[in-house]
């Protein structure tokens, strides 16, 4: 009797879920078949396929989850103790999520009016740079023939990812709430990087971090006989961390100053100060110039004497202390930062010597060595092998070496076009002071990271590309969000005032 009832229930379930039952039955037999003929690996892949299908379905249903996953994953890709599974190329994590987000948007294209926001000056600048990089496929300066595979690897990182970043940010930063959540997530991740710096400094490095340091990282990160350590936090090295921290601090400080919500203002300002502390622990001397350049840009963009005067006085005072005094010289990190102003610094002299040698070789190669031409695929007897052996030291020198004087000129023009377009929006199209602060902060951060890239190879390192090119893409969609932003901000200010009144009433009641 029990068996009959049980079989009836199975029959009823199978009748109601006929398609699912058949699919599971087929998957079961396919798994058994593959286990017998192909082994455990294929069997395991088939067994987890339902989980992957559910995961993809969930991302399609809650598409913003994929966006937030992209932001978090991008931040931790380069961490020595990254929680991400190994065996997958770092760039693929970002690209898979970006392409998934773009695919979801294309599927929902009828319900998604955000595609028109992607048609802006930044897209034009990226398209020009992208077209030039496509032409580089035909560059055979080293007489090696066309190597499409090597070219595409560099092309993805130098150009194609900029398209994905622009599309993702323009499509998914679609409301004031999402914009605010993004800024909070960015600030929270930056604060975690500061915490990890503190941990490295006071509690020591993890086994994986130690392994990296003593397998080559020590040469640039453990200085002065071991008495000075450059901390790299969750990043691939101290230079990437220091330049990221400088640009992030600029943005968060400006956003904090112009924010009208009291608790947010305090949080952004405190986090920016913490991030500046982290920048000093990295020992990245370019960070000081990036920080200063970012704030100088905002002084111009703000068009406000009230902002310009205090900012100008503060930074003149700050730079004067570093340049003309010995205050803080007891701290090795400050002494290292101060050496950035030393014209006789050995590190700067080596870079100048390298640039002079590169310039001599590139006289016969106006198109550069070619994208994808590296030490690994240039023969030892090749005229340009020596050029591939010289450390580029910076992103701009790297682009100069691989695309020549023509390429670096195109790149600079494209960066300038997209940045000036964003600055024009901040100065002439936005009316909301807090939104001008967000736009100005992101424009200032972009110029800060570009200055960092002039001295260090950090522009396309994770998480910098997504963070700062994505930030500039946000500026281009701010005019679309402004009317909703003003309403949303008014609602939040009303709630803030209501809380203030309630606190006053409670205080008066206690006095009585």
Outline the structure in words.
This protein has 512 residues and is mostly helical. It has 19 helices and two strands. A two-stranded antiparallel ribbon has the order 1-2. Strand 1 (222-223) and strand 2 form a beta hairpin. The longest helix is centred in the last third of the chain and has 48 residues, at 464-511. The termini are far apart. Residues 2-7 and 13-19 have low confidence and may be disordered.
Descriptors:
single chain; 512 residues; mainly alpha; two-stranded antiparallel ribbon; 2 strands
The largest sheet, given as strand count, sense and whether it forms a barrel, is: 2 strands, antiparallel
Helix/strand/pairing class, anyone? Answer: mainly alpha
Q: Which segments are poorly predicted (pLDDT under 50) over 5 or more consecutive residues?
A: 2-7, 13-19
Helix content: over 70%
Q: Total strand count, please?
A: 2
The value of Rg in angstroms is 27 Å
Order of helices and strands: HHHHHHHHHEEHHHHHHHHHH
Terminal CA distance:
77 Å
The neighbouring-strand order within the major sheet is: 1-2
Tell me the β content. under 5%
General form: globular
What count of helical segments does DSSP give? Answer: 19
Q: On the 0-100 scale, what is the average pLDDT? A: 81
Topology:
Layout: H1 2-16, H2 18-37, H3 40-61, H4 63-76, H5 90-107, H6 121-135, H7 148-172, H8 176-202, H9 207-221, E1 222-223, E2 228-229, H10 238-258, H11 262-282, H12 286-302, H13 305-324, H14 332-338, H15 346-362, H16 385-389, H17 395-429, H18 433-455, H19 464-511
Helix pairs in contact: 1-2, 2-3, 3-4, 4-5, 4-8, 5-7, 6-7, 6-17, 7-19, 8-11, 8-19, 10-11, 10-12, 10-18, 12-13, 12-18, 17-18, 17-19, 18-19
């Amino acid at each position: 009797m029990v068996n009959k009832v049980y079989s009836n229930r199975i029959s009823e379930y199978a009748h109601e879920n006929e398609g699912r039952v058949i699919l599971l039955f087929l998957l079961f037999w396919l798994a058994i078949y593959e286990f017998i003929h192909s082994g455990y690996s294929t069997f395991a892949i088939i067994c987890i396929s339902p989980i992957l299908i559910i995961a993809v379905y969930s991302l399609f249903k809650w598409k913003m989850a994929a966006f937030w996953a992209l932001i978090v994953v991008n931040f931790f890709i380069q961490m020595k103790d990254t929680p991400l599974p190994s065996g997958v190329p770092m760039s693929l994590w970002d690209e898979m999520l970006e392409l998934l987000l773009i695919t979801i948007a294309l599927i929902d294209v009828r319900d998604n009016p955000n595609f028109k926001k992607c048609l802006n000056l930044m897209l034009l600048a990226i398209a020009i740079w992208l077209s030039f990089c496509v032409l580089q496929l035909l560059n055979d300066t080293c007489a090696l023939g066309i190597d499409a595979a090597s070219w595409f690897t560099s092309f993805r990182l130098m150009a194609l990812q900029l398209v994905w970043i622009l599309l993702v940010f323009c499509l998914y930063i679609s409301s004031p709430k999402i914009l605010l959540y993004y800024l909070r997530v960015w600030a929270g991740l930056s604060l975690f990087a500061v915490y990890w710096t503190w941990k490295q400094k006071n509690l020591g490095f993890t086994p994986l971090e130690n392994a990296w340091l003593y397998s080559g990282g020590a040469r640039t990160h453990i200085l002065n006989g071991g008495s000075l350590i450059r901390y790299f936090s969750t990043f691939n090295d101290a230079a990437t961390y220091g330049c990221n921290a400088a640009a992030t601090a600029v943005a968060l400080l400006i956003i904090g100053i112009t924010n009208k919500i009291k608790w947010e203002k305090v949080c952004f300002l405190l986090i920016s100060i913490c991030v500046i502390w982290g920048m000093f622990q990295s020992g990245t001397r370019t960070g000081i110039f990036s920080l200063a350049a970012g704030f100088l840009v905002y002084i111009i963009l703000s068009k406000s004497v009230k902002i310009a005067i205090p900012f100008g006085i503060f930074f003149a005072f700050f730079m004067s202390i570093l340049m003309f005094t010995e205050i803080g010289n007891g701290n090795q990190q400050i002494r290292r930062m101060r050496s950035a102003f030393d014209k006789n610094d050995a590190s700067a002299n080596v870079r100048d010597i390298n640039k002079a040698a590169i310039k001599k070789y590139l006289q016969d190669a106006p198109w550069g060595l070619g994208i994808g031409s590296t030490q690994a695929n240039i023969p030892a007897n090749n005229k340009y092998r020596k050029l591939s052996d010289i450390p580029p030291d910076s992103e701009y020198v790297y682009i100069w070496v691989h695309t020549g004087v023509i390429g670096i000129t195109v790149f600079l023009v494209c960066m300038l076009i997209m940045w000036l377009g964003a600055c024009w929006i901040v100065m002439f199209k936005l009316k909301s002071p807090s939104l001008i602060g967000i736009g100005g902060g992101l424009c200032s951060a972009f110029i800060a990271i570009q200055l960092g890239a002039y001295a260090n190879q950090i522009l396309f390192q994770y998480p910098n590309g997504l963070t700062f090119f994505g930030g500039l893409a946000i500026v281009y969609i701010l005019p679309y969000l402004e009317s909703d932003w003003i309403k949303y901000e008014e609602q939040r200010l009303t709630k803030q005032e209501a809380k203030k009144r309630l606190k006053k009433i409670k205080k008066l009641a206690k006095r009585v």
